[in-house]
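Posted in: Protein Modeling Q&A

I'm a second-year student putting together a small comparison for a lab meeting, and my supervisor asked me to include a predicted structure for Nicotinate-nucleotide--dimethylbenzimidazole phosphoribosyltransferase. I've never done this before, so apologies if this is the wrong subforum. The sequence is pasted below exactly as I got it from our records. If anyone can share the C-alpha cell output, I'd also love a short note on what stands out.
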Amino acid sequence: MSPFSLPKISPITHVLRDKIQEKIDTKTKPLGSLGALETIALQIAEIQNTTSPRLKNPKLILFAGDHGITEEPVSLYPKDVTWQMVINFLNGGACANVFAKHSQIEVEVVDVGVDHDWDDSTKNLLIKKIRKSTSNFLKTQAMSKEESYQCIQNGFNLILENKYKETNVFLFGEMGIGNTSSASMILSHLTGIPLSKLVGKGTGLNPEGKQSKLQILERAFQRTGKLTDPIVILSEFGGFEIGMMAGAMLGVASEQKLFLVDGFITTAAYLLAYHLDPNVKDYAIFSHVSDEEGHIIVLNHYQINPLLKLNLRLGEGSGALAAYPLVELSIQFLNEMASFADAGVSDADKKV
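Accepted answer (user: helix_wrangler)
Welcome! Here is the predicted structure, written out as C-alpha cells:
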C-alpha cells in the first residue's frame, strides 16, 4: 500500500476546444501561421477552461540538494558549490535571478537535501531538508523508499500552500552538483535508452572525464539491474531535489495549472511524475532542448517538441525562463490580436 495521499490528476477537458480554436483561427493572420504559439495558446486556454486565459503571479521554484555520487569523479566541481550557489540565488546574483527579473518572476529556493548548516543570516530560504545529501548510489541506494515518498509528497504539498493560491504558472529549476548523474540513471531506467547515449559532459567534463563518468554509472546500473518502478528508481539513484520537483509537478497538475519544464534534470523529474500519473502531461510545456546530449534523445523518445534550441546546459530553470516570454506572447496574441471581423480585413477564400 503506497503511503502517498496524492489525488488523481484530471486530464484537460476539451469542452471549449472548438471555440478556442475558432478564436485562434479568425485572428488577422493566415491559418496556423503562428505555429507553436497557437498550440500553446490552445493548451493554456483549455487548462484554464476559458477563451481568454491569463498568466498570473508566475513563480520559479529552485530545488537544491547534494548527491553522494560526488564521492566519485563525476563532476568538475566540488559539492560545496551547491550551497554556495544557493547563497548566490538568495542574493540575486545567478543567471536565474537575472532572467526572472526580466519577466517579473519571483524566485523561491528550497533546500531539499543540501549538505550545509545555514546560519541565522540566511534569509528567504525554504527548508524542506530530507537529510544532508543522498548516499553514494555506486555503493548503495541513494535514499530509502520512505524518503522517496517524502520527497514527492513534500513537493506536492508545497504547491498547495496558500502563498501559491493566486499563481497559475510555475517554472522549475534545480541546483545540485552531481545531479546530471542521477538524471541519467533515472532516464535510462524509465526509457530503456542506454546510458552511453544519455551521459554527457555535465558541468564541462572533457572526453576522458565523460568516459570515466559513464563507466561509474554503468557500474551503478549493474548494481541494481534494470528497474521500472519510478519510486524504486528514485530511491536507488536520487536525488532529493529531483523527487521533490516531480511531486511539485504533480501538485501543479492536480490544481489544473501550468508548468514549464526546463532541461535534462527537470525532464527526469517530469518523467518520474509522468510514470506516476500520465495526465501530468496535459499541464506541461517543454521550454528547450538542452545541450546535454541525451536530452534530445529522451524528448524524441516521447515525441516531445520543445520551444527553443539555444545549446543551454546551465540548469537552474534558465531555459524555462528564456522560453517564458514566448508563452506570454501566445496569450497576448489570443487576447489582444484583432480578428478579421474586428479589423474589417477580408478573410481567406475557404474554397481555394
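A couple of things worth pointing out for your meeting: Residues 334 and 345 are 17 Å apart (CA to CA). The mean pLDDT is 95.
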